[in-house]
């Protein structure tokens, strides 16, 4: 697999389109941090890290609106990819949907959302946009 982050985002996107309740994804430290950010921002219902197999597993419970059954995540899009890395400086961080969505960045101080990166005045690689 050349791009594990794109695989992670695609599994979540496919699970939402198929209206699955739970998605299983092979674990890595970067994927765990992205999962924590999605949970903190309210895009997923819950998550669980399991030490199963050689690298472990992430189980994500997807979040839907109780009445309309529409997913909480409308779009999740990979920005920086192995063939073309995208970086943003601290004073030029992207705003997703004018602040309604989030951009997830990999910085020197760890993986964080664009709002946290602005507070800490750090830039980094723009991993994905979520709204």
Topology (SSEs and partners):
Blueprint: H1 4-17, E1 22-26, H2 29-40, E2 44-50, E3 57-62, E4 76-78, E5 87-88, E6 102-107, E7 110-113, H3 114-120, E8 124-130
Antiparallel strand pairs: 1-3, 2-3, 4-8, 5-8, 6-7, 6-8
Task: Characterise this structure.
This protein has 131 residues and is α+β, with helices and mostly antiparallel strands. Helices cover 25% and strands 31% of the residues. It has 3 helices and 8 strands, in the order αβαββββββαβ. The strands form 2 sheets. Strands 4, 5, 6, 7 and 8 form a 5-stranded antiparallel β-sheet that branches. The protein is globular, with a radius of gyration of 15 Å. The two termini are 26 Å apart.
Shape: globular
SSE order: HEHEEEEEEHE
Oligomeric state of the chains? Answer: single chain
The low-pLDDT segments are none
Please report the total strand number as a whole number: 8
Give me the secondary-structure category. Answer: alpha+beta
Q: Whole-Å distance between the termini?
A: 26 Å
